[in-house]
Design goal:
The chain has about 260 residues and is mostly helical. It is about 50% helix and about 10% strand. The protein contains eight helices and five strands. The chain has a three-stranded antiparallel sheet with strand order 1-3-4. It has a two-stranded antiparallel ribbon with strand order 2-5. A hairpin with a 5-residue loop joins β3 and β4. α3 runs antiparallel to α4. The longest helix has 23 residues.
Length: about 260
């Protein structure tokens, strides 16, 4: 059977590990390049609106307040960068924003609007993702993104929106060009990770929902990565968490 020629799925531990590395890269970037001093003026609302597109689990005005407050700023910047990259590698993302290959993102949008048999569609989707990713592997499966990679357009636009929001909080003692280069590397790393997640026969989703046990004054800074179907597209009785959420606490006075 032709399925025998497909690459083996990436191991769960490797997927969870890459998600963990992405979270660590964002955390280290924030700690290295931003300050907690008071700033004049307000957050760029237009750019913040670009970042907040989609079902962001935080009102844009609240995120702006968290960014402006020195006490909550570092947490807010981490959330801001994480939401930007994770929402754009989600398979439901608008193709005009998505970090997935444009032909994939467009096709996903078309498929999502069709009325198919729910008992067979997940299995079809599982095979379609695996075959499509295998056919596109030579173009999008490399460890670096070339200058001709069509994903660069949305990556650049996301970088510009992030910089418009975060620039007032950039540490002036650090090289600004280096800061933007490191931020771009994070965005491109997430784009490569997004293609890896898409290529898996099992469906993987990001969970931003705050668990009831978290209590008040909490914010999911980074979502959980969970497997929700098996390799044949069958829904699992319970999602398998490959990487846990990062939750900020003690924000009762700010949310």
């Amino acid at each position: 059977m032709i399925e025998r020629n497909l690459p083996q799925p990436v191991e769960d531990q490797a997927l969870g590990g890459e998600m963990s590395k992405l979270k660590t890269a964002i955390k280290n970037h924030v700690q290295s390049y931003y300050h907690t001093n008071s700033v004049k003026g307000s957050v760029d609302q237009v750019a913040l609106g670009v970042i907040a597109m989609g079902n962001m689990p935080l009102i844009a005005s609240t995120l702006g307040s968290l960014l402006s407050n020195p006490v909550t700023r570092m947490t807010a910047i981490r959330f801001c960068i994480t939401w930007t990259v994770i929402s754009r590698i989600d398979q439901n993302c608008d193709p005009n924003l998505s970090f997935l290959p444009p032909e994939v993102a467009t096709c996903l949008l078309s498929i999502s609007s069709t009325r198919d048999d729910p008992s067979t569609k997940p299995g079809f989707m599982s095979r379609w993702r695996a075959f499509t990713a295998a056919l596109l592997q030579n173009r999008y499966g490399a460890t670096t993104m070339t200058a001709s990679d069509p994903r660069n357009r949305n990556v650049t636009e996301a970088l510009q929106a992030l910089d418009a929001v975060l620039d007032p909080f950039a540490d002036e003692q650090r090289d600004n060009r280096e800061r933007l280069q490191k931020l771009e590397e994070i965005l491109k790393r997430s784009a490569r990770f997004g293609f890896t997640l898409f290529s898996q026969p099992s469906l993987l989703e990001f969970d931003w929902n705050t668990p009831p046990s978290a209590g008040r004054g909490t914010l999911v800074v980074s979502p959980a990565l969970a497997q929700v179907t098996d390799d044949n597209g069958r829904r699992l009785p319970r999602a398998r968490v490959l990487e846990e959420q990062d939750i900020a606490r003690g924000l009762e006075s700010y949310l």
